[in-house]
Amino acid sequence: MAAPTTTVVDHLVERFRELECREAFGIVGDFALRMFDGATKAGFPIRVTMDEQGAGFAADAYARLRGFGVVAVTYGAGGLKVANAAANAWAEQVPLLVLSGAPGVAERAGDPMLHHKVKDFDTQLRVFADLTCAQAVLTSAHTAADEIDRVLSSMLSQQRPGYLEVPRDLIGVPIEAPSGQLDVELPPVDQVALSEAVADILQHLAEAHSATIHAGVMVLRRRLQLALRDLAVAGNLPVASSSLARGVFPERADLGLGLYMGAVSPEAIVQRVEQADLVLSMGVLQTDLTLGAFTAHLDHERLIQCDDTEVTVGYRTYRQVPLWALLPALALAVSEQAISLAHTPLGVDEIHGSDGMAAPTDAPLTVQRTVALLEQQVDERHGLLLDPGEALFSAVDMRVPTWALGSAYYATMGYAVPAALGAGLADSNRRPVVVVGDGAFSMTGLEVAACAFHDVHPVVIVLDNAGYGTQRPILDGPFNDIPALQSENLPAVLGVGQAWRVRNEREFEAALRAALALDQLAIIHVCLVEGDRSPGLARLGAALARRV
Q: Do 363 and 377 touch, CB atoms closer than 8 A?
């Protein structure tokens, strides 16, 4: 009996659906036309964006919420434009697949000068070899399916981006169809070391009067949110999120503290974390930005650091104790041992001050008041997209209702607006609310057109501080000045949506209320007080100044 066959595109689509990925994002080109056509005919749409980088950011956000994302491009001129998105995904451990069409295998004979080619036909492959955990150029019908599965399995095992290049003359060729589902190997576990690590942590918890969980992005990537909640509830342990993991735990719950980002965070949150007898760091990437430019003061003797593959308790390290095995085991053990510590919920006034959540007035808009008024109106129906800069730093003072996505470590500007497209399609139950600076909006703001085109209706709040405001306190100069954009005129250009230009608190509050009630694209151009900075950025500056 002949072995069953399929095609490259059909096999890809089958695997994507297996991974709960229902669509990709990208821009077609002649080397990718057959690939795009095959995917479309297989019922797998590729959502067109305004630029390839925007497609990469949209697919990245989709992957953060769904567990896997795909950006589809053509060879060379298209593929190289998503290198930055792939770099962002590598740095922040996002399983983003770069799927590139390419010149056919037969076309490459004799090394001709085909358009989009750079040095040779493997230039693009070499670029992505540094930006992804696994790569493959499909050149044989006999090995194509195995190569696809190898790349996808590596991506999910390591939670990193991957790269597949599909020559266009291989698209319609029958390939051998593998049997069974994708085989994904999680990081290995040493059961003895796991038991000893759990016992060690339990002893520390039993001796502590207070403890706090610092929850990181690997809890999200390994889909351990329920285990985290079980642990927190069983031990009555408050949870502070890291900047890469907002939404990993309900920040507005009694056990929710909000965001811990070293000295950038409000003092009340800093004290709850840094003054605890014990800090359980769960899957936190120990980066400069997630730890507030390394201003986090976490005593090593009171820190239990649980990474993706190992656990460190004080000065003892347990190898091959991965987070996916430790967190559920620890939650069960804490419940069985009936360990429960004292905790007093954090009050809103402790974060914002006595007047931080006051009703709007006619006062000019500051970053702090803009964020406070936003926090009052967003709820479980909304998800946040935060661009690097003031949009990210200002949200430190906000306890978000659900998820909040951003390039919070790699810090690539222009992420949030195109990411709204991917987030809106990945989680159709929540409307994207974008907070973005005027500088970042000038880079990728036109992706609001792609959002509207695909029936995603974000609320986009443009914080206009007249340039690169985050850089000015560090070193100011004409290099921080940018062309001014009247972003409120964009709906008229696009022929869809509504916009407002606001200068005071009452105007912003009214515009935001109207925007959230509007079932289409909404843009609010916030004209901030000149030279204003968010409390988070001010706290960071003060902390860094003490080092000089």
A: no
